[in-house]
Specification:
single chain; alpha/beta; 8-stranded mixed sheet; 12 helices; 18% strand
């Protein structure tokens, strides 16, 4: 069975979509079968994977509302090496539409039920808010990966997200775990960045990934070419860091699976 990883943070601008796309590409480079699910109406993960969000027959919105099947919607991206369940602005309608359908918080979980047998990893890119789309992702996921920029408001926002995760664990998905916290757009020359990073490790210990994603121009440039940074410039610091992060994530999963029940 594949593992579903939800990349979530209600704060925008923390590298969430960048992390989702480059994690998917990095896992694929390790010969894993990967699906990237775009649940953000902005469709940035879709475009960043080389899929035109303006030219979709179906989107993740149609899948959530039961208007299209998963198999009819998923798009293969041979260049990137992984499959994409794409999104565009239509997904905004799902927010309203989901309020009127049965099992509204489990629509994504139901849609991905068969997909777990076909992929080693399913990576979900969530919108930058704790809305019904994010709840669907958390209910469907096995684990949550939290990208975090080490800045002033980071810890406060992280506390709100963790409280939401605890609520989901208590009422809708008892198997959900926090896979880890990833420090993104990191600049070690910034004293505040280093202070927040130290606080993260103090409060969350081993939940903080050892791998740090640096602020890197190649990572910022890659989406405009419709490519993960690994394919845009595989020798860049950003590409090397995301490969290391994917490797660390796989090691963490292996360790979790090997641990006694």
């Amino acid at each position: 069975m594949g593992r579903i990883i939800c990349v979530a943070n209600q704060k925008g601008g923390v590298g969430k979509t960048t992390t989702a796309v480059n994690l998917a590409a990095s896992l694929a480079s390790f010969r894993r079968k990967v699906l990237l699910v775009d649940l953000d109406p902005q469709g940035n993960a879709t475009m960043g994977s080389g899929v035109d969000k303006h030219d979709l027959d179906n989107s993740s919105c149609d899948v959530l509302l039961g208007e299209a099947s998963f198999s009819d919607t998923v798009v293969k991206t041979p260049a990137a090496g992984f499959d994409v369940l794409p999104a565009n602005a239509d997904l905004t309608a799902a927010e309203v539409g989901l309020m009127n359908v049965p099992l509204k918080e489990k629509r994504l979980s139901l849609a991905l039920a068969g997909a777990k047998d076909r992929y080693d990893y399913i990576v979900i890119d969530c919108p930058p808010s704790l809305n019904m789309l994010t709840v669907n992702a958390l209910v469907a996921a096995d684990g949550v990966l939290i990208p975090l920029q080490c800045e002033y408001y980071a810890l406060e926002g992280l506390s709100a997200l963790i409280n939401t995760i605890k609520q989901i664990q208590g009422s809708r998905n008892s198997q959900l775990v926090i896979d880890g916290i990833v420090r993104t757009m990191h600049d070690p020359r910034n004293n505040l960045t280093n202070e927040v990073s130290a606080q993260l490790i103090h409060h969350f210990g081993d939940q903080v990934f050892r791998t740090i994603i640096p602020r890197n121009i190649r990572v910022a440039e890659a989406p405009s070419h419709g490519l993960p940074v690994l394919l845009y410039d595989k020798a860049s610091r950003g590409a090397v860091s995301y490969l290391a992060m994917a490797s660390e994530l796989m090691r963490r999963q292996e360790k979790r699976m090997a641990a006694p029940a």
